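Quick illustration, no need to memorize.
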Amino acid sequence: MTSHTVKAFDSELETIRAVIAEMGEKARQMLSDAASALMNLDVGLAKSVAAADAHINSLQRSVADKAIHTIAKRQPVADDLREIMGVVRIATDLERIGDLAKNIAKRTTKIALTQNIQSCLVSLKAMHDRAADQLKDALEAYARRDVALARTIWERDQKLDALEDLAYRNLLTFMMEDPANIPFCVELLFCAKNLERIGDRTKNIAETVVYVVTGEPEVYD
């Protein structure tokens, strides 16, 4: 690339990175609000999470459009192409995290009138806290190109999987104790699964960071 072309490409890439940063903040806020709505059975907050999903979807489309435009116009290769493909993958994962947060919020509205379920939410709160930390660090790893931080997320995600197993056992106990608990416990089981899948998406982002920085695919079992 000529000097002018390199500067233009760098400018376009910075624009895309800025959208990714905005998506990351939006995804983190949606996850936080979805968890808060669930813990407090706050229907109004849950509805605001569902409404926010349209924004993150729009941002994801913006990243895809800008990436396609940049590839077609600049024809990047090697590290530059890897960077462009990486942001597209990260945008897809962030958009999906938004979908999963929205799903938690929608299920919250179904159980909002249920009484005395706080003891059922303890394990889900622990799941949220871990998923939120993984998302924060995955975004930080991307922003700093921190491969070491990205690689820690895989091991941490295994612990999130273990928390999902604990949540499943706890909720199954509640259902066995009283069949009347089954409807809301089923909704909470889906919420737990959504939190586990959010963890998987943070792991995807971490894998992408490693690939973008090193050029080597990071494959986890």
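DSSP finds six helices and no strands in the chain.
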